[in-house]
Each structure stands twice: as structure tokens, then as C-alpha cells.
């Protein structure tokens, strides 16, 4: 297949309704951290971008939202062309300029503090990171507390960025500034908004 | 949908164009991530005037899908002008099912009440908000109130509540009673009676707030601490009513006063019409219901 047709095919079949259902899953995941929203394989993007991450991109990104890609994604011309065609979002090489950051290899992700944290006056001007993890249940268990969680919830994503619990505690300490995380795998999508606390420490 | 899709000059599903929905959806996600913080958004002109719930309508339009069941209330009632017209709007532009039953709805858009029936997990409560900034009547400058939120400087609000006590002997604020969300942001719960404030605390439903004219969206996720501001020696308390609902006999609900004649006659009835109707269907009767209680 030519690059042009790879870039054009594989978007939402019903852009309006697919975007709405993915957004509801995203909203649910963000409002109830640690829960997994399923059935998001609505797109067929070029690898290494996964269908779940691509669904989040098509739902959230447009010409107003610069996107940052990690090295494996940025290296793939088909991924860049696909995102450009389907979202119209500009790519940026500067992580602090990105509204959304997509990451295919979370274990090699640069430090979370490199992304836009928002300001004390406008904490909403912060990045949302979408991490493509292999699994949401196979890794070290994270015990979660915070808004959206009645008592406690567990999530075991794998792989995660280096020293993740320590980085997350620092992110949490910056509140109301800070980044928000969306974790996607074949199982579905989960989110860790900046308010979520990880109460067990890295073993 | 196909029959509609073939017709010409259609509105997009749920009226708003997709780029607007994405912008509002991004604001909603950030609002959920920072509970109680007012996220600015590019509020659109809607086919109804500002002040008629355009903020709530834009939030609902960005969230709603064909599977949803919508309930709209205005001061607790399903059958008043604002509720009827917004419900009809979404039936027309989104072809969604509507209901008046709190328990059946997946999205409830509300003007100034929280339903009496406890909300469930998965439900979304969308508030129409006129003035989202709780500090606005104390400090008119946006630059200053923004700084006060940034610095968590809420002394002015406590002074206002204290002045209530100094003047009236108690906190005289009865609606739009300020709350603190998750120990950080002071938030305006919209002009709901303070009777409803305790329902916001650890609610099972997601609460979204839209202010169309003021261009702000904010949110409270489920299971979030929402504390009404008060003083140790003047703790927060809700309104109490001396008599039960005159139609359904309910105690412990919020009542509206209805004037009956020009000689001081009045009755108090449930503000939540769905709650009142369901109770009457179950056989509960108040003293003015005109029927005998079911035995």
C-alpha cells in the first residue's frame, strides 16, 4: 500500500458516534481512575500506533492541540502522516509545547516534568500523556486512592516509565499543576488524573 | 439515523459541530482532573439566550450519545419552561430517549436542584451555572479571583460568611452556598439550595458544571469530598421544613411554597416533581392531595 493510502485509511467509520463513545469511555476512565474502559478498537492506524491510542487521538486532537510523539512513533512516517490526515494536529518536538503526548515505549519515556504542567493560575494548560502499555493487569500492582475512587482500586499496568511511583508522587505534589495520564492497551483504557495517589511504594 | 442522514441541511448530531465538541470534551477532562477548578472554554452561541442554560446544554451536547436517556429539571420540576424546551431541543437534535424518572436517566441536566433520589454510579449530573466564580461578588476582577484561587486564598469568603453571622446571628446564605472540593478549590455549586449541598459530597454520580455566558466548565468526580464552608461554632446546616409535602407527605425533602389565595393561604409541596409523583404512585398522600391515603 502506498503511504498516501495508509495515511488516509483506518479512521473512525462513524466519526461522530465513534468519537462520542470513545470520549465517554475516556471521561469514565478519568472520573473513576483505575477502571478499565473496553472495546475501543475502532481505528486501524499504522504501527506502532495502537488502535486504542489512535482512538484517543481522533477523539481529542485537532488543529488546536500540538502533539508530541516519542521516538518510536516519531520515527514512523506513516504514523505522522496518519495523525496529520485524521486530526490535523501539528506535531511538536518540544514536549512542553504539546497538549497531548503519545508514547509507544513507556519504559523509555522522558521525565514527566518535561511536559507542560500548567500554571498555578491555569492548571488546565497541562499535557495529557497517552502511554501504550502492553498490559493493564500484568505489571506491579498500583494501589490507588483519590477522587473518583470510593475506597481503593488497583491497576497493574506494564511497562511504565522509570521510577514511576516516585515520578507520580512528584507530579501529585505539584497539584493543581501536573500532567494527566491515559494508559491504553489491547484490554482497553484506564486513566490516572493528577489527583490520584499511589499509596503503595515501588518494590 | 439513515433516514435523517439522507435529508439535506441537517444539524450535526447534538447540534454542536465536532471541533466544538472536541474543545468542550478536552475542557471536561481537565475539569475532572482538577476537581472544582473552573476551566475556561470557548462557549458558543446556542439557539437560546444566555442565562437559559447554554453552558449546561453545551456540556450535555458534548457528552450525550444515542444510547443515553436524558432527564432535564428546572428547580426540581420536569414540566417547567426551561426543562421542557431543553428536553425538546435534545429530542430534536440528538433523537435521544428522554425520561422524567431520575432512576432511568443516564444524563440529568439540572437547573438549581439535585434530585431527591440518590444518584447511581455511571449517571452524569449536568448543572446549568449562571455565575461560576464563588468570589465574584466579593472581588469583581477576574485577574484577582484567579490569583486568589491560585494561592488558595479564601479568607474573603470566610469574611463574607462571618459578616452574615455578625448581621443576622447565623449564616444567612441559603443558596449557591460555597463548598470546598477535595480540600483545595472553593467552588460555587450553582444556585442550588444549600439543602442540596450534602448530596454533592461523595456522590456516586459524576457532576459537571457548565456556565455558558461566563465560559467556564468545572466538575466533581464521583466519590469526591465536598465540604460546605462553615465555622467551628457555626457549623453548616441545611434548611428544615416544619410540615411535610402537602401532596405526598414526604419529610426531609426540599419544599416549594405555593400561594393559594389572597388571604394568606399557602401550601408546601416537593420541589422534585418526579420524587413527589413516585411517592403518590406508591400510595403516599399529603393533607392537601384531595384523596384519601391508600390503606
TrEMBL record, chain A:
Keyword Signal: no
Gene3D superfamilies in alphabetical order: Bacterial phosphonate metabolism protein PhnH
GO molecular function list: lyase activity
GO terms for biological process, alphabetical: organic phosphonate metabolic process
InterPro entries registered for this protein in UniProt: PhnH-like_sp (IPR038058), Phosphonate_metab_PhnH (IPR008772)
Lyase found in the keyword field: yes
A Pfam family per the record: PhnH
Keywords of the record: Lyase
Coiled coil location: none
Name of the featured protein: Carbon-phosphorus lyase complex subunit
Organism of this sequence: Nitratireductor indicus C115
Automatic annotation (TrEMBL), chain B:
Keywords linked to the UniProt accession: 4Fe-4S, Iron, Iron-sulfur, Lyase, Metal-binding, S-adenosyl-L-methionine
GO molecular function terms listed in the Swiss-Prot or TrEMBL record: 4 iron, 4 sulfur cluster binding; alpha-D-ribose 1-methylphosphonate 5-phosphate C-P-lyase activity; metal ion binding
UniProt organism field: Nitratireductor indicus C115
Short name of one Pfam family: PhnJ
Family under the similarity heading: Belongs to the PhnJ family.
Substrates-to-products reaction catalysed: alpha-D-ribose 1-methylphosphonate 5-phosphate + AH2 + S-adenosyl-L-methionine = alpha-D-ribose 1,2-cyclic phosphate 5-phosphate + methane + 5'-deoxyadenosine + L-methionine + A + H(+)
InterPro entries: PhnJ
Biological process per Gene Ontology, one example term: organic phosphonate catabolic process
UniProt superkingdom: Bacteria
Annotated transmembrane regions: none
Protein name: Alpha-D-ribose 1-methylphosphonate 5-phosphate C-P lyase
Function field: Catalyzes the breakage of the C-P bond in alpha-D-ribose 1-methylphosphonate 5-phosphate (PRPn) forming alpha-D-ribose.
EC number: 4.7.1.1
Amino acid at each position: 500500500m502506498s503511504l498516501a493510502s495508509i495515511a488516509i485509511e483506518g479512521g473512525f467509520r462513524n466519526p461522530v458516534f465513534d468519537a462520542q463513545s470513545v470520549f465517554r469511555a475516556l471521561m469514565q476512565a478519568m472520573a473513576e481512575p483505575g477502571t478499565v474502559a473496553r472495546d475501543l478498537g475502532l481505528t486501524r492506524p499504522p504501527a506502532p500506533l495502537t488502535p486504542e491510542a489512535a482512538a484517543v487521538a481522533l477523539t481529542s486532537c485537532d488543529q488546536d492541540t500540538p502533539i508530541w510523539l516519542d521516538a518510536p512513533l516519531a520515527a514512523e512516517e506513516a504514523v505522522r502522516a496518519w495523525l496529520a490526515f485524521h486530526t490535523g494536529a501539528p506535531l511538536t518536538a518540544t514536549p512542553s509545547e504539546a497538549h497531548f503526548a503519545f508514547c509507544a515505549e513507556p519504559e523509555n519515556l522522558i521525565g514527566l516534568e518535561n511536559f507542560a504542567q500548567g500554571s498555578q493560575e491555569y492548571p488546565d494548560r497541562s499535557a495529557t500523556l497517552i502511554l501504550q502499555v502492553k498490559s493493564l493487569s500484568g505489571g506491579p500492582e498500583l494501589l490507588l486512592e483519590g477522587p473518583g475512587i470510593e475506597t481503593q482500586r488497583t491497576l497493574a499496568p506494564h511497562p511504565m516509565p522509570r521510577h514511576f511511583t516516585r515520578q507520580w508522587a512528584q507530579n501529585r505534589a505539584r497539584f493543581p499543576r501536573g500532567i494527566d495520564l491515559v494508559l491504553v492497551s489491547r484490554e482497553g483504557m484506564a486513566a490516572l488524573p493528577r489527583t490520584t495517589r499511589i499509596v503503595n511504594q515501588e518494590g | 439515523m439513515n433516514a435523517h442522514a439522507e435529508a439535506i441541511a441537517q444539524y450535526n448530531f447534538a447540534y454542536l459541530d465536532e471541533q466544538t465538541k472536541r474543545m468542550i470534551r478536552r475542557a471536561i477532562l481537565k475539569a475532572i482532573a482538577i476537581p472544582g477548578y473552573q476551566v475556561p472554554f470557548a462557549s458558543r452561541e446556542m439557539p437560546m439566550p444566555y442565562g437559559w442554560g447554554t453552558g449546561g446544554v453545551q456540556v450535555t451536547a458534548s457528552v450525550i450519545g444515542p444510547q443515553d436517556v436524558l432527564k432535564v429539571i428546572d428547580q426540581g420540576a420536569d414540566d417547567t419552561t426551561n426543562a421542557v424546551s431543553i428536553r425538546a431541543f435534545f429530542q430534536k437534535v440528538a433523537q435521544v430517549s428522554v425520561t422524567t424518572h431520575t432512576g432511568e436517566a443516564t444524563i440529568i441536566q439540572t437547573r438549581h436542584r439535585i434530585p431527591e433520589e440518590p444518584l447511581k454510579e455511571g449517571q452524569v449530573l449536568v448543572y446549568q451555572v449562571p455565575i461560576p466564580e464563588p468570589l465574584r461578588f466579593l472581588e469583581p476582577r477576574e485577574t484577582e479571583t484567579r490569583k486568589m484561587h491560585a494561592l488558595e486564598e479564601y479568607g474573603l469568603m470566610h469574611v463574607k460568611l462571618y459578616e452574615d453571622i455578625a448581621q443576622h446571628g447565623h449564616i444567612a446564605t441559603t443558596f449557591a452556598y460555597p463548598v470546598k472540593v477535595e480540600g483545595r478549590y472553593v467552588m460555587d455549586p450553582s444556585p442550588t439550595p444549600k439543602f442540596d449541598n450534602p448530596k454533592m459530597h461523595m456522590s456516586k454520580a459524576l457532576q459537571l458544571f457548565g456556565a455558558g455566558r461566563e465560559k467556564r466548565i468545572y466538575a466533581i468526580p464521583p466519590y469526591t469530598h465536598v465540604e460546605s464552608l462553615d465555622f467551628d461554632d457555626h457549623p453548616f446546616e441545611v434548611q428544615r421544613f416544619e410540615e411535610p409535602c402537602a401532596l405526598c407527605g414526604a419529610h426531609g425533602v426540599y419544599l416549594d411554597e405555593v400561594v393559594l389565595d389572597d388571604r394568606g393561604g399557602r401550601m408546601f409541596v416537593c420541589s422534585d416533581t418526579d420524587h413527589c409523583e413516585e411517592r403518590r404512585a406508591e400510595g403516599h398522600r399529603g393533607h392537601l392531595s384531595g384523596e384519601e391515603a391508600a390503606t
